[in-house]
Amino acid sequence: MTPLRSLLLKRRRIDPLVLSAGILLLGLMIGVGKVVFLLFALCGLYLALARHRAARRSWTLYGTMLVAWALWQIGLSLLRGEPLAGNRVLSYAAIELGMAFVPAGLCLVRRPLDALAIGARLALLALLVAAPVDYVLSDGRVGLGANEALFAFVAGVVGIAARLPARSSPRWLPNGAAWTYLSAVPILLSGTRAAFVVIALAALVDLLRLFGRGVGRPSKRVIALSLIGLAVIAYPTAQIIGQRYESGVNELRNFEATGRAAGSVDARLVMWTSAWAVIREHPLFGVGGTHKMEAAGEKAGANGFMVTYYQHLHNFILDETISSGVIGLALMLSVFVAFLATVFRSTRERTLREVALLLVGFLVTFGSFHGVLLNEWTLIALFGTMGGLVASLCRAGTGVGARARG
User: Distance between CA 344 and CA 352 in Å, rounded?
Assistant: First the structure.
C-alpha cells in the first residue's frame, strides 16, 4: 500500500469526526472551527487544480457562481488600486472563493450530513450551558467573546444544520426539527432582534409539514410538550424582546425630535438613506468597499459621524451594491439562487429542501439589518453548511440531478 493511499484511508475515518468538531467549535465561537472548514476548502482547491474526478463530481452551478462573485469583488478592488493591507473586501472575498471548494474537500467524508448534524446538535447542547453562564457572568448580551449579533447568526445556522437527517447518530442525538428551537436560548440571550426570526421561520416550515397533505395532526403528547416548552420560555422571551423593542422605539422618537442619530435603529435609517443616495450616483460598479462608509457619511450631513463610526451599512443588499454595484449584487444573489436550484434539482427529500430554504431565508431576514456577509464567522458558518449540503448531494452514486436519500 502506497503512503498516499494509506493517508487517504486514515483520513476517511478521521474526516467525519473533524467535520463534526468543526461545526461544534464554530457554534461555540472557538477559532479552531473556522480553521477546520478552511482546511477542507484547501483540500478541495488542491483536488480542483489536480483535476481530480472528486472535484469534478462535486462542482455545481452554485460553486461557479460563488467563484464568479468572489472574483468580481477581488477584480474591482485591484482595479481601483485599493490598498492590500487591511482590505476587508479582499479577505472576505478570498474566504468566499475558498468556500466554493468545500464540497470537493469533503469528498472523503462518507456522510457529510451525519457529521454536520451530529456536530451541530452537540453545539446546541453546549450552548444551552455556555450561553446562560455567560449571561450571568457578564450581566449583559451574550456573544461568547465575539460580537453578539455574529454569535446569534452562527447559533441560528447551527440550529438549522441540526435539522439535517443523519442515518447513524447516537440515540440521545435523534433526528428531528425540535433541535432548531434550542437555538432560541443563545439567540435570545444575545439580544439580537433580527435573529429571532429564525425561530419563526422554523415554526412556519414545521406547521406546514404538520398540517400539510398526508401528514395528519400532531399527537396529544407532542402538543402537550410544545405547550409546556412555550410556557417555560414565554416570560424570559417576552422580557428580552420587550426591552429591545422599547429601546428601538425610544431611539426613533429621539431621532424625530432632534434629527440626530444616537442608537442602532436610527443610525440604520441614516445609513440606508445616505447609501441609497451614493448608489444612485454609482449604480454599475459602486464605490468600493474601502470607501463606501466615507461616501455614505458625506451624504448623511450632520449625522455623517454616526455613519463613519460603523464598518458596514447593516444591510447585505446595500453593502454589496454600494461596494460592487448592481453587477456585484446580481452575482451575489445568483449564488443563493443557484444553491436552492442545486438542492431542489438534486433531491426530493423534504427535510433537505426545508434546510436549504431556512438557510437562505435566515440570511435574507438577518442580513436586512446586519452585515452578515462581512465577517469570517458568519461567512464560514453559512457557506460551510451550504457546502456540506451540496457535498452530500454530489456523492458518488447520486450526482446532481439524481434523487438523494438524505
Answer: 9
Q: Which long-range contacts (CB under 8 A, 24 or more apart) does 15-20 make?
A: 15/106, 15/108, 15/109, 15/115, 16/109, 16/110, 16/111, 16/112, 16/114, 16/115, 17/115, 19/106, 19/109, 19/112, 19/115, 19/116, 19/119, 19/388, 20/115, 20/116, 20/118, 20/119, 20/122
Mean pLDDT, each 10-residue run in order, the chain (406 residues): 58 86 96 95 89 79 95 93 84 95 88 94 96 86 90 96 90 90 91 85 83 55 54 58 59 56 70 89 88 85 77 90 94 97 92 95 93 93 96 61 37
Residue 212: Cβ within 10 Å count? 10
- Based on its alpha-carbon atoms, the radius of gyration of the chain, rounded to whole angstroms, reads 22
Q: How far apart are CA 80 and CA 215, in angstroms?
A: 56
What value, to the nearest 5°, has the Cα angle with vertex 165 and ends 146 and 389?
60
Q: Give this prediction's pTM.
A: 0.86
